[in-house]
Amino acid sequence: MDCTTVSLDSICERIGDGIHGTPSYDENGEYYFFNGSNIVNGSLIADNGTKRVSKEEFIKHKRNLGPNTLLLSINGTIGNVARYKGEKCILGKSAAYLNLKSKVDRNFIYFILRSTNFQEYLKNANGSTIKNVSLEMLRNYEFEMPLGDTPNKIGNILASFDKKIEALESINNNLDQQLKRLFKRLFTDNTSLSLGRLGDVCDVQKGLSYKGEGLTKDGIPMINLGNVVPGGGYRQDKNKTYSGEYKQKNIVKPGDLIIANTDMTYERIILGSPLIVPDYQGDILFTHHLFALRDVKLPKSYLYYYLRTDDFHGLCESSANGTTVLAITKEDVLDAVMPIPPTDLLNQFTSVADPYLAIMSTNDKECKQLEELRNYLLPKLMSGEIDVSTLGMPN
Questions:
Q1: Nearest to residue 32, comparing CAs of 93, 94, 92?
Q2: Secondary structure (DSSP) of 204-247
């Protein structure tokens, strides 16, 4: 495959980032204020903590984003990539934008940014506690660009996997939103419910404090802070594997609940966010930046959606200690005040939530299989090892 060496700077009209300051927020505004942590699984995601701004504020701080724009997280959580899809938003400083030249295939460059080579390059970013990728570092990145229409063919083949994944994720998001509304109606807005402590219905346990040399390619799956989606959920693309020593108390099993006890993001929206442990075979570890819920006395589906409420996140924020890195203690979590519903209301919720979560889990597994196949093809297509003319489009 014939190629030429190019830099990101040479194929972009402009590489920039968002505002280096705080806009005036407007809770009724129609424009989101997105930062790097809002770039999740190839898309811009608004969650409960995402701020809004007015049209006037948008005009003041807008960037020239369009159909040939890619977005990249460059501060704190680095290396997440998304295609801009016309979202009404302004950007913060932890999100960079790359406006590609008109003849450059956006799908191809999207996968260049997701490639192992580029992600390894980003590990040279400055910062000890919170990493930061400079715009100069982005502009200087060089890679091999195939000649002719090969980038377009490669981009389209790989993007077809993303379309299927996005369709499944859209189904999951719809089911998730339905459950959030049901939870709010049955519990959050129900002022007649008795209150108790989270510690009345479960205990929490901190995960493994591991050594870096224990991280290997062929070890045991280890859920870490990077797996936590702001506001709740599991990110498969941030998995780590570990081959060092561990104890039984460091193990979780599929279906267990985990919450983040640490937050290193600029926007402070990871703290307290939960995830449901996915269905892996064998032992599954979790790190010391996370708490696992133990001895749970209420349905896990109920607790999962409680842990995603503004009330719980607010309690975590108000209890947190630290400046650059925020942290909450076991006692902070166990002292959280929560509604304790009667059995009939719990059954009403779980009769809907449990089947929905099962569907979402099945869809997640299919997404994982598609991602694995796409990631297998990615380096082989980029290197020319697989001739694009021999591949059809996936169903």
A1: 92
A2: EEE-B---GGGEEEEEEEEE-GGGBPTTS-B-GGG-EEE-S---
User: If the chain, 395 residues long, is cut into consecutive pieces of 10 residues, what is the mean pLDDT of each piece?
Assistant: 92 96 94 92 82 96 97 91 96 96 95 92 81 93 92 92 93 97 96 96 96 89 92 87 94 96 80 93 93 97 96 91 88 95 97 97 93 89 82 55
Task: Report the C-alpha gap between 334 and 45 in whole angstroms.
Answer: 29
- Contact yes or no for 95/125 (Cβ under 8 A): no
Cα–Cα distance measured from residue 73 to residue 186, given in angstroms and rounded to the nearest whole number:
37
Distance spanning both ends of the chain, measured CA to CA: 27
Q: Determine if the pTM surpasses 0.90.
A: no
Distance of alpha carbon 273 from alpha carbon 47, whole angstroms: 11
DSSP state of 55: H
C-alpha–C-alpha distance, residues 383 and 108, integer Å: 13
CATH 3.90.550.10: does it fit domain 3-148?
no
Please return the burial class of 82, using the count of CB atoms within 10 Å of its CB with bins 0-12, 13-18 and 19+: buried
Could you tell me the two tokens for 129? 């506690």
Contact 338, 312 (CB under 8 A): yes
Distance separating alpha carbons of residues 26 and 271, to the nearest angstrom: 23
194-340 homologous superfamily: DNA methylase specificity domains (3.90.220.20)
Q: Mind giving me the DSSP string for 237-296?
A: GG-EEE-S---GGGEE-TT-EEEE-EE-STT---TT-EEE----SS-EEEBTTEEEEES-
Question: Token pair for residue 67?
Answer: 């159909």
3-state secondary structure of 20: coil
Count Cα neighbours of 104 within 13 Å in the Cβ-side half-sphere: 23
